[in-house]
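QA checklist item 7 of 12: single-chain prediction sanity check.
[x] sequence parsed
[x] length recorded as 290
[x] structure emitted
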Amino acid sequence: MYDIKKNPLGIYEKAIPNDFSWKEKMQAAKAAGFDYIEISIDESDERLARLDWSDQEIDEIRSYMEETGIVIPTMCLSGHRRFPFGSKDEATREKAFEIMEKGIILAQKLGVRCIQLATYDVYYEESDEETKRRFLDGMKKSVEMASRAGVILAMEIMDTPFVGTILRAMHYIKEIPSPYFKIYPDMGNLTQFSNDVESEFELGIAQTAAIHVKETKPGVFKNVPFGEGTVRFTDIFKKLKELNYTGMFLIEMWADNSRKQTMEEAVKTIKDARLFVEDKMKKAGMKHEA
């Protein structure tokens, strides 16, 4: 378990090479100075198959947590991009609920406390009032399931206009008032859809379960190296300190899987990102250290 006397700083699973085993991923996170890993259940068949992990497979991962001290408190459940709640296809909607139910059960077994949702009504279809209505209905039923399991569902502030700001997310928070339904802002995405990121955080801080720390630039939401985008990290951290936010921060970045990487290379890449972020936090007066 991580030290609760400091702001926990985690690393996205996809920031570590895909060919690393779970034990190696946790060892890399530990060596790079992180407190936790966020597991990815994306739209690929390979990662969706994790929803059917056996108890033996889950116990093995839990043993790695105990061995390394790296826990998995959050899950990025982005499989709903492929199988969205707002789809006009009934079979797709049924699959969305199946993914949600299995995701909540897996969260219980792994000790995940917060599931980050991909907040799209639809992604590969055309959005309209019907898809938005179906999405809201899907969220209501999902929150009912999560509430019974004691797992928080948190809408990510996304890379599309649908819920690209906290203001837009608050519509759904008001429609579904629940302690198990929150938001998961992404600094990078928010920067590209709002001219006043600080006010956005002020609006939604009481509903914030965790925060993504990601670099972006206009029109580019992935694979922008830290320091090469337009996210005003220091200013945002200053605002979060003012708002007394002491929750989880998750560095979101992606490993270069086009070539084989050594453990040393993988650790250096994510450690450099951690040092960059911690420098911005320190300049804002919000230290990660205990």
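[x] summary fact logged: The chain has a mean pLDDT of 96.
[ ] second reviewer sign-off
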